[in-house]
Amino acid sequence: MIGLSHYLIVSAIIFSIGLIGVLRRRNLLMLFFATEVMLNAVNIAFAAISHYYNDLTGQMFAFFVIAIAASEVAVGLGILIVLYKKHGSLDLDNLANMRG
Amino acid sequence: MYEMIAFYLFSALTIGLFMVTVMSKNVLYAMTSLASAMVLISGFFFILGADFLGVVQLIVYVGAIMALYSFAMMFFDATRDIKEKNTNNALVFLLGGLSALVLVLIFAAPIHSDAIHALYPIHEGAGNAQDVGIVLFTKYLVPFEVAAVMLLVAMIAGIILAGKKMDHSLTKDLDADDEILVVKDRK
Amino acid sequence: MENLVYIALFAPFVSSLFAALFGMSQRQVFVGIVASSLLAISFISSALLAIHLYTTGDVIHVRLMDWINAGDLHIPFGFIVDQVSVTMMMVVTLVSTVVHIYSIGYMDHDKSFNRFFSYLSAFVFSMMILVMSDNFAGLFIGWEGVGVCSWLLIGFWYHKADVTREENPSISPSWAANEAFIMNRIADLGMLIGLFIIYWNTGSLQYDEVFAQLPYLSETILTTSAFALFIGAMGKSAQFPLHTWLTDAMEGPTPVSALIHAATMVTAGVFLVIRANPLFSMTPEVSFFIASLGTFVAFFAASMALVNRDLKRIIAFSTLSQLGYMFAAAGLGAYWIALFHLGAHAFFKALLFLGAGNVMHAMHDELDIFKMGGLKKTMRWTWLYMGLASLALAGIFPFAGFFSKDAIIETAFNEGTYVLWAILVITAGMTAFYSFRQVFLTFHGDERYKEFGIHPHEMYKYVLIAMAPLAILALVAGFGMHQYEAFITNLLPEYHMSEHTHHLVVWLTLIVSAFAIGGILLAYVKYAKGLKRDTKLENSFAYKVLANQYYIPQLYEEFITKPYKIVSEIFWEKVDLKIVDATVDNIAKTLYKTGDSTRSMQTGNLSNYLNWMAVGGVVLLVIAAISAMLV
């Protein structure tokens, strides 16, 4: 039988995959993809907990996470376009203006 | 039994697809695999009985967000492979693996607390959409409206950021037509 | 009446602040005039209080505010005007008013004129707190305050360079100031311990409460606390072995010597013993020690004064000697006689010092009496004042010193301590000799200063007039002795001579007077006609010992200062540099190194930052997991 732990473990694995993406990617667009992965991992956990504890709160939070992800993508992509216009690339290595 | 098969199938597929997203050099591949993994995640939601959430996932994520990415990609050159100096893989997989291990350990541990009571219980018999609607428009009304305003703000911000200087091409300096215009102007 | 108390107390403070406003600017005469006027106001208030107290007998006790309220410790800023403190207030304000006016003339050419007045008035304020406070804590504050002001004033000419001890026995003003301050600090430790013992055992520092508790204390506690307090008094009043600072303090300007190191501050020790007389009268051993030490110092200082050639130092030694007399009286239980001698001595000693200041002014800061002589012609008034003051100091009838000193010597006889009596009588003769040796060498005989091309001139008129009150008091103060006795014994224990002494009093007086007159005659014979130097005597061992102050300063330097310096250097090199400094330096170096090495983290690359963030997150996760497992 599939229990809560199964879902949570899948969620943890997907989250770690997202983390790996965040860590290794230098391209901003790809970084965005990695964040989406992490957000989805969290959503799975929310839905699973909601189901197993018979409580709708988890699903509510998942909705808000989706809303936030949508806004993030809208604003983020706008910024990416501006950046691309300015630098002609989305590589983080070219954007090290804050070097201390 | 079906649930178990579905769960393992979806798990394997999502993990595989997300791996592709994270590891692929091609933006197009990455995006496609991300989109398909999103669809499979909505599958998880359906198994868990969160029908409405699953639908929203399909519409918002797969419909809206992936469309947004696809449009955005038209500005960038998506056909070429991305050349990036990836961070040292040893470090990445060490950190990723470690976090996965620890999280799995934590989540696999048995939950002792019996004192968790449902605040907004799921009603037997009523459809998931009705349940969600009632809770969302009563208990979570204010956050819901705030989220709506936030989406509006994000939309405006996105349009303004992306919309500036839309008449300039990002990929080439001058089109053939523009050159003609410039030559005309000179005359 | 309460307002008068505050005016008397705070007028000097206002004066000090006022002068401090102009501390850094050019000499301005009005600063001196304002300061002197405020001091005069303080004196008038004190006088009114004294008259009030004399006529009505009301002791005025005021409480300005609460000062310390911590746990069981309650110390108010309270002031008391009783017979003892009003005597001190009169003496202090009178002498300081005269000295302030005198300083306007004396410091005429000094560029730090305004600063001088600020310090001088601050000193008077501290002294007033010392004498007026109704508790030991206030007394201690005043005690430290006068210490600081004394330090500031001795080192007033701090810019003078250090010289060797052979050239100038007190090396330099700043050296002398430090010496005075450090010696007093050593003694103050004793005093503090005394105060702690008193507080620990009586739970209070208020005079009346402490004295009421005394009969219930054990003898050991009484003796220890009395002795510890007396150590404090020894420092302030420059008693052996803490006496060397007083003569070195003569490096300060002469008005300072007159005010602080003769008339007021140095008597604070005597004041303390008188103030705490219930304590000291319950500890006969300590009292006898005080009397013996006083007698010894009287003789010891007088012997050094016999051969000294420095005008101010001779007077300083005589101060030391007279302080010895006061302690002798106080130690023998005749507290009011000690206080009376204190007042009388303040008048004629201040006069003597101010006269010496006139001479110094005339001789362009030359102090060697062997280079003077015959100044009587040009400085008639100064000669008169100094002669008068010396007569008073020598104890010749009818001057103030005769009555007070005679009373002390009678007390010594009355108590049956014939050894002390004999020493005090001999010292009286020595006192007469050295003071007139000084007068004759300065004002009589051949005019030796001409060799050095000095043209002496008399001091300003107003300065001479300002000195007159002191001269008059030195002349007549003795006649008020019986009234004063009636007045002061309201507070201090009475002291009566026995029948036996009473019969012999004429003879005793005659003996003392004979010694005094003998001393004067000897001085006249030896020095009045001019200076005939006796090289054989000057090269004798005894003379050298006396001239070098029994080699005590050298001894202190050799056995205390130098070893202390060596130890300090060892500590500096071994402990401070290698442990303390190194620790601090290493902390700073570590911080620098950490900063330097972690600076490379700030690449400006978002990806690196994300990596670091992930590292942090994972570490936190691991810690959370481990702690969860341990619980």
Count every beta strand of chain A, where a strand is a DSSP E run of 2 or more residues: 0
Strand content of chain A: under 5%
Helix content of chain C: over 70%
Q: Give the overall form of chain C.
A: globular
Q: What is the name of the CATH class of chain A?
A: Mainly Alpha
Intertermini distance of chain A: 54 Å
User: SSE string of chain C, helix = H, strand = E?
Assistant: HHEEHHHHHHHHHHHHHHHHHHHHHHH
Low-confidence spans of chain C? none
> Biggest sheet of chain A, in brief?
none
Gross morphology of chain A is elongated
Number of domains of chain A: 1
The share of residues in helices of chain A is over 70%
The multimeric state of the shown protein is heterotrimer
Question: What is the CATH topology assignment of chain A?
Answer: Helix Hairpins
Fold and architecture overview:
The complex is a heterotrimer of chains A (100), B (187) and C (631). With 100 residues, chain A is mainly α. Chain A has one domain: Helix Hairpins. Helices cover 77% and strands 0% of the residues of chain A. The longest helix of chain A has 31 residues, at 57-87. Chain B has 187 residues and is an all-alpha fold. Among the domains of chain B are: 1-79, NADH-ubiquinone/plastoquinone oxidoreductase chain 6, subunit NuoJ (Four Helix Bundle (Hemerythrin (Met), subunit A), Up-down Bundle); 128-166. In chain B, helix 1 packs antiparallel against helix 2 and helix 2 packs antiparallel against helix 3. The radius of gyration of chain B is 24 Å and the shape is globular. Chain C starts with a helix and ends with a helix. The model of chain C has no long low-confidence stretch (mean pLDDT 87). Chain C is mainly alpha-helical. In chain C, strands 1-2 form a two-stranded antiparallel ribbon. Chain C is built from 25 helices and two strands. At the A-B interface, helix 1, helix 2 and helix 3 of A face helix 1, helix 2, helix 3, helix 4 and helix 5 of B.
